[in-house]
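Please go through this protein, sequence plus structure tokens, and consider how the sequence yields the tokens. Keep your notes short.
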Amino acid sequence: MTTDAPWTVKRLLEWTTDYLSKHGADSPRLDAEVLLSHALGWPRIQLYVRYEECPPDEKRVWFREAIKERAKGRPVAYLTGEKEFFSLRFRVTPAVLIPRPETEFLVVAALDVLRREKPSSPRILDLCTGSGAVVVAIGTQYAMAELVATDISAAALEVARDNAEHHGLNERIEFREGDLWAGVAGEQFDLIVANPPYIGLRERESLMTDVVAHEPELALFSGDDGMACTERIIAGAAEHLRPGGWLFIETSPLIANALFERIQATPKMRAIEIKKDLAGHPRILVARRDDLASAEGERT
């Protein structure tokens, strides 16, 4: 970025948008805006209000290096160290999966049940918590819940604890390290949410470089078809749900129907529905513990 012309906000955005576009970025303008607003400490709208201003050199140095890294495929969220989810700001590092908009449907599905049934002090478990985005979002919206969150990754739990503290929930969420049910052996809950790894290893070649090269494999892949981790969750759900308790699992549209059938064939579990995301893709598996349910139960 060396030239005699002044590097105004407008010119920085135009140049970097073109640069990122040539390097294959899916959303070059948005990436440029997010990185520049982060560098300057401004809300994005201020970039347009102050279009003709020239940012100081030290801010442009950080921005320039961030743009170089973005052109190599490093996700914007890892460059800024944060990501918005459910209108909340979360710290993210390469130790955790970057929260996606579709995961907000997992939160919405759980909150819909809580607000409809109005339990006084429900026990809620978040499996594979990662950054803690799901459990923190639920906790901010339902103050009476007793919250437990688990993850196999100690590094991920460190990030999740930071996020809980940032949103004032560190005293309400108990974080535990363990592989799925290992952290809650012998315990039962009124509601369980999970966003487990659900991408099949056979899909690796079809994924964006941003994802494969930078996000944690442990949070992405689960066996050849993507079902291994979710199948373990389904198998142990009835043991860890109180009678009538709810289970919500985010999954891939490629395996949603197969997993729905797996739930329906699991004793004491009743598959309720598969909720779709904004794109119309099957995304959230909804089920309940039903002690009358059996492998012969009818699909609802």
Remarks:
- The chain has two domains: 9-72, 94-289.
- The chain has twelve helices and nine strands.
- Confidence is low (pLDDT under 50) at residues 295-300.
